[in-house]
Amino acid sequence: xxxxxxxxxxxxxxxxxxxxxxxxxxxxxxxxxxxxxxxxxxxxxxxxxxxxxxxxxxxxxxxxxxxxxxxxxxxxxxxxxxxxxxxxxxxxxxxxxxxxxxxxxxxxxxxxxxxxxxxxxxx
Length: 123
Hints:
- The chain is an alpha+beta fold and 123 residues long.
- It is built from 4 helices and 2 strands, in the order ααααββ.
- Strands 1-2 form a two-stranded antiparallel ribbon.
């Protein structure tokens, strides 16, 4: 397992349901301003994005002409795709990432390209 692709560290919100989080002003702010709203006792979304992008760039350098699979969670995947697409974190919810879906990026000498987004997994 690679720590760089782990889920967001939700700190004080770990284990809470959406119903429990909904009344919290920090939760609403986090979902509106992901780039600058810290999770109490957890991670800043910019840090999540930095760690996944750094790992993907490292994998690109280690395996320059290879296909590499990176498995992670929806918001971590959104953060990576948003970075490579030039989409601000505050707008990354416009990207749909479903459970067990497949998104394909090409990170090569010509720059990043999104080849597939949220493709359904095989049943």
